[in-house]
From TrEMBL:
<dbReference type="GO" id="GO:0016853">
    <property type="term" value="F:isomerase activity"/>
</dbReference>
<keyword id="KW-0057">Aromatic amino acid biosynthesis</keyword>
<dbReference type="InterPro" id="IPR011060">
    <property type="entry name" value="RibuloseP-bd_barrel"/>
</dbReference>
<dbReference type="InterPro" id="IPR013785">
    <property type="entry name" value="Aldolase_TIM"/>
</dbReference>
<dbReference type="InterPro" id="IPR001240">
    <property type="entry name" value="PRAI_dom"/>
</dbReference>
<keyword id="KW-0028">Amino-acid biosynthesis</keyword>
<comment type="pathway">
    <text>Amino-acid biosynthesis; L-tryptophan biosynthesis; L-tryptophan from chorismate: step 3/5.</text>
</comment>
<dbReference type="Pfam" id="PF00697">
    <property type="entry name" value="PRAI"/>
</dbReference>
<protein>
    <recommendedName>
        <fullName>N-(5'-phosphoribosyl)anthranilate isomerase</fullName>
        <ecNumber>5.3.1.24</ecNumber>
    </recommendedName>
</protein>
<keyword id="KW-0822">Tryptophan biosynthesis</keyword>
<keyword id="KW-0413">Isomerase</keyword>
<dbReference type="InterPro" id="IPR044643">
    <property type="entry name" value="TrpF_fam"/>
</dbReference>
<comment type="similarity">
    <text>Belongs to the TrpF family.</text>
</comment>
<feature type="domain" description="N-(5'phosphoribosyl) anthranilate isomerase (PRAI)">
    <location>
        <begin position="4"/>
        <end position="206"/>
    </location>
</feature>
Length: 208
């Protein structure tokens, strides 16, 4: 199973994660987040990171800004973490470089009764799905959702599992029938927002 480490802000930590063969490096491009990458790194610094799994996380951002950031930062994946609809994704697809993949997020909360029909009716114009816990801040809360909900869905795309994944709950992964393509870890592996605890991440790799 692949691993994405999200919310990166520090060049030395990015280097260490590359040495650990981390599959995806996640950068938050949501200005309201405490992990907003452009407060720490500029576009050139992100662009030269030697990795083919650079993911930019956006929340209800304009198409123009996403395309600009994708180009300037040489992003390989765009993670749409807001309320972007299928028309928006179609437009984005046509505006992005052909090699750039799109990950559409479904935030699962208390009002997710119609999630099943939403997923079943999708045109699936994204390349990947990502399931995270819903919250007012959109993500990065460290809270999990009930993973059993996934057992009730037909998931027609490879998906990232996210939302409060930690060393403590990773054992429960076996209760999910359709296994994730990748695990997305973030706030449970930090000493403070945007600063990763590399020892914890190494333990996580060993536990998998
Ligand atoms: O991390 C953030 O600050 C953030 C802000 C807004 C949208 C998404 C964000 N992060 C994403 O949230 C999930 C889960 O994180 P956590 O493990 O619950 O802390 C992850 O996909 C991040 O990409």
């Amino acid at each position: 199973m692949k691993i994405k480490v999200c919310g990166l802000t520090k060049p030395d930590q990015i280097e260490q994660l590359i040495d650990l063969k981390t599959d995806f490096l996640g950068f938050i491009f949501y200005p309201k987040s405490s992990r907003y990458v452009l407060n720490h790194l500029n576009a050139d610094q992100i662009s030269v990171i030697p990795h083919s799994g650079k993911v930019g996380v956006f929340v209800n951002e304009t198409l123009e800004n996403i395309v600009k950031m994708a180009e300037e930062c040489s992003l390989n994946y765009i993670q749409l973490h807001g309320d972007e609809d299928e028309n928006y994704i179609d437009e984005l697809r046509h505006s992005l470089n052909k090699e750039t993949m799109i990950i559409k997020v479904f935030r699962i909360g208390q009002h997710s009764e119609n999630l099943k029909s939403k997923i079943q009716n999708l045109k699936f114009n994204s390349d990947y799905l990502l399931f995270d816990t819903d919250s007012e801040s959109f993500g990065g809360t460290g809270k999990t959702f009930d993973w059993q909900i996934l057992n009730d869905l037909e998931i027609a795309k490879p998906y990232f599992l996210s939302g409060g994944i930690s060393l403590e709950n990773i054992d429960k992964l076996t209760t999910i029938t359709h296994q994730p393509f990748a695990l997305d870890i973030n706030s449970k592996f930090e000493t403070e927002a945007g600063i990763k605890d590399l020892e914890k991440i190494k333990n996580f790799y060993e536990k998998l």
